[in-house]
Amino acid sequence: MLSHLPKTWLALTIGNSRLHWGLFNQQTIIQTWDTNYLTESEIRSLAENKTLEQILFHPPIPPLFIASVIPQQTELWRNYPKVNFITLEQIPLNNLYPTLGIDRALALLGAGETWGFPILVIDGGTALTFTGADNNRNLIGGAILPGLGLQLATLTQKTGQLPKVELSQQLPQRYAQNTTEAIQSGIIYTLLAGIKDFIAAWWQDFPESKIVITGGDRNVLFTYLTVQCGGIAAGIIVEQNLILWGIEKTINVET
């Protein structure tokens, strides 16, 4: 890590499906954006300010802090100038187990540092995850299941006649009268039931805890919860940049 927090620096989360970027001025997020994965040659061009992104990469190239859940993608960034890789051991939380996804740990840290501990984070990404910590910053644990998009895609890929179904932006009716809406109903209502059960169990153990939802499906999940159970939704915070905040907090501790 660096001996001090630089004025301008970049955070990069290498997720299961995309790259998530954050441009910081010390502890403040200036801009965020997402891109597809980059090839080795594209990364080399980026380092040399030869792409359209050069507007954001004013010379000298700012330090880059990476948190990755995709080892193959991680390797492509090894030769990038001023690159720093965040590891699980650097994250200032207790009781982290070795195979915990660094994205989950960073999101938990970002949420806890912002809204206080205890905290529960629901990440609606490629996988839907629940991750919680107690008042003393100890990881309580969590759960992982396929996210909305993955469940929809799996039905299409693993069956002979079920159609490809897009994610509904509005809560569908429960008892559908066609196959497409039946798939939407089955996946969405079952998933919502699981989310509500986890939230109820968490609030039973930590009644004063905040709950934060993040990830690519955060808004649509929150919409579903608001329509079906507004009381629960009223106690949930929606925030897309938890992992980036977690990177900033980790760097701040390190420096």
Structural summary, described in words:
With 255 residues, the protein is of the alpha/beta class. It has 8 helices and 10 strands. Strands 3-2-1-4-5 form a 5-stranded mixed beta sheet. Strands 8-7-6-9-10 form a 5-stranded mixed beta sheet, with helices on both faces. Strand 6 (119-124) and strand 7 (127-133) form a beta hairpin. The longest helix has 27 residues, at 179-205. The protein is globular and about 60 Å long. The model has no long low-confidence stretch (mean pLDDT 89).
Q: How are the SSEs ordered, and which strands pair?
A:
Elements: E1 8-14, E2 19-25, E3 28-35, H1 40-47, E4 64-68, H2 71-76, E5 83-85, H3 102-115, E6 119-124, E7 127-133, E8 139-146, H4 148-158, H5 179-205, E9 210-214, H6 218-228, H7 230-233, E10 236-238, H8 242-254
Helix pairs in contact: 3-8
